[in-house]
Every structure is written in structure tokens, then in C-alpha cells.
Write a structure and sequence with these properties.
Blueprint: H1 2-29, H2 43-52, H3 59-73, H4 87-122, H5 127-140, H6 144-158, H7 174-200, H8 203-210, H9 215-243, H10 247-253, H11 258-268, H12 271-299
Length: 305
């Protein structure tokens, strides 16, 4: 297992470097610049700003300087729009918020989704199966950009139970978690149900039942673990999406997460902030892809790399 992890890391590091270089080239190839505004600045002012941030140097030198800052100092540089704040400070301020409601949304989506999927498979074609499938379909057709305004309308404007925005205690977490977890929960439930039905029809399950084992033991010990393999494949990228936040959730609920910072940086052409958040998402995606592979080997010992 250690050798496998080292081999994956040997592939992950060049992949992350390629992501950084490609993102850097694409952002600098876009028309305009960080100092392009509705009111044109004097050429001398723009030249001074480009010299201050190193934008007057050749592109290859800018890439090398940027990579050196990340590798040597873990420094993503200063923000072009907010000169008194660095990219590290912007991410450090927004990521804990996104991590909080993203992790809670992940736990809720997995718990509810797996529970619905298992219940639907075990009681196939019963009222419980139809109810679980109906809930999953209803949740799937209400993505977060539809769910978020509905939640604000009902629980804030009509009922006045929950705050419609901001960030603070648990009462601020409820609506962002619901909006973010709903569609993922529906997908997890559908995958779990399909996988569970396939496992329940396999030979080793029939053998376990023929031995007289209680149905709960058959489900828990013999069916649930292999049925989780397709679910885990989905959970890797889903977890990254949830813990890096949703732009819609940050925009609607004004949580102060990195989703709003990413949108603002795109609108303001703040290359440094966009690069920092892009690298964060890419690094987390690579990390949790490795975690998924390790979990595969743990769940099914027959899998070897």
C-alpha cells in the first residue's frame, strides 16, 4: 500500500504543476487585464502597476516566479484588486466557512442518501421503495440554484425562522447545508439503490441467507460493504465540490466563503485570487482521488494496484 501511495504521489505532483501552468496561461490569454477598468488609466500608471506586480516580465518568467513562490514559500502572491490583502489571507478567511458547511452537507448527503438507497433496495417495489425513489427524484430536480431562493422565501420571508444570510451560529448553517446537500443526496441514493440491488442478487448473498443468517446481518455484513464501491467512486469528486463550496450557496446566503471570492475575482480579473482557488480545488481533487483508491482496496481486498 505504501508503494502504491508513493506512485500516486509521483503522478499527482506533475499533474498539479501542469494544472498551475495551464491555468496561468489561460488566464493571461483572456482579453483585458487586472487593471482594465471602465475609466481608462493613464499609460504611465498602468506601466507602474505592471512593474509592481511583475506583469511586465516575459510570461515564462512570470510562471517560474509564481511556481517558486508556491513551492518555496507556499505564497500565492498579493491580490491585484485588494493590495492590502494577500491571496493566502483571502483563502484563509473564506475556506473555513466553506469547509464547515461543506463538511456538514457531505455528512448529511451520505447519511440520508445511503439510508434511502439501502431501504429502497431491501424493500424493493414496496411503498418504502416508491417513497425513497420519489424523494430522490424530487431532490434531483431541485438543484441548489433553485433550492436556495425557495429556502430563503419560505424560512426567512414567510416563517421568519432562520436568518436569510450571513454567517454565525448553527442557525446560519441550516439553509446552506440543505441547499448544497440535496442534489448530492439524491444521486447517492440512486447509486446506492442500484448497487445494492445488484449485490443482493449475487451468489454469496443467497448463500448467506441459506445458512439462516438474519436479514439484518446479511445486509450489514455481506451486502453493504461491496455495494459501497460505486458510491465511493462518486463521493470523491462530490466531497471536493462540497467542501470547496458552491458559488450559488455563497452568493444567495452571503456566507463569506471562497465561492464569492472566486466570482468576484473573475469579474475583477484578479488573476492571483483565481489562481489560488483553482490550485486549492485541484489539489483537493487529486488528494481525494487518492483517498478513494485507498478506500477501494480496503473495502474489497481483491483489488490490487
Amino acid at each position: 500500500m505504501t508503494g502504491f501511495i508513493l506512485r500516486r504521489l509521483a503522478v499527482a505532483i506533475p499533474t498539479l504543476l501542469a494544472l498551475i501552468v495551464l491555468s496561468f496561461l489561460l488566464m493571461h490569454a483572456a482579453p483585458g487585464g487586472p487593471f482594465t477598468q471602465e475609466r481608462a488609466l493613464p499609460p504611465q500608471v498602468i506601466a507602474n502597476l505592471n512593474a509592481k506586480y511583475g506583469l511586465d516580465e516575459p510570461l515564462w518568467r512570470q510562471i517560474l516566479n509564481y511556481l517558486w513562490g508556491i513551492v518555496a514559500h507556499f505564497d500565492f502572491g498579493p491580490s491585484f484588486v485588494y493590495p492590502d490583502r494577500s491571496v493566502n489571507q483571502i483563502i484563509a478567511a473564506g475556506f473555513p466557512v466553506t469547509l464547515t458547511y461543506g463538511a456538514i452537507a457531505f455528512v448529511v448527503a451520505v447519511a440520508v442518501g445511503v439510508g434511502l438507497g439501502v431501504a429502497a433496495a431491501v424493500r424493493q417495489n414496496s411503498w418504502l421503495d416508491h417513497l425513497a425513489v420519489g424523494i430522490s427524484i424530487g431532490a434531483q430536480v431541485l438543484p441548489n440554484f433553485v433550492m436556495a431562493p425557495i429556502l430563503v422565501l419560505v424560512f426567512t420571508l414567510w416563517l421568519g425562522w432562520l436568518p436569510g444570510g450571513g454567517w454565525g451560529g448553527p442557525q446560519f448553517w441550516i439553509m446552506p447545508v440543505i441547499a448544497l446537500s440535496t442534489s448530492f443526496m439524491a444521486s447517492i441514493a440512486r447509486i446506492t439503490r442500484s448497487s445494492m440491488l445488484e449485490v443482493l442478487g449475487s451468489n454469496h448473498i443467497r448463500t448467506a441467507r441459506a445458512k439462516g443468517l438474519p436479514e439484518a446481518v446479511v445486509i450489514r455484513r455481506h451486502a453493504l460493504r461491496p455495494a459501497m464501491l460505486p458510491v465511493i467512486s462518486y463521493l470523491g469528486p462530490a466531497f471536493v465540490t462540497m467542501i470547496t463550496g458552491s458559488v450559488v450557496v455563497d452568493m444567495y446566503f452571503s456566507t463569506g466563503g471562497i465561492g464569492r471570492s472566486f466570482v468576484d475575482s473573475a469579474l475583477n480579473r484578479d488573476y492571483a485570487v483565481m489562481m489560488g482557488i483553482t490550485i486549492l480545488v485541484g489539489a483537493l481533487t487529486i488528494l481525494f482521488s487518492l483517498v478513494v483508491d485507498v478506500l477501494y482496496a480496503w473495502i474489497d481486498p481483491k483489488i490490487r494496484y
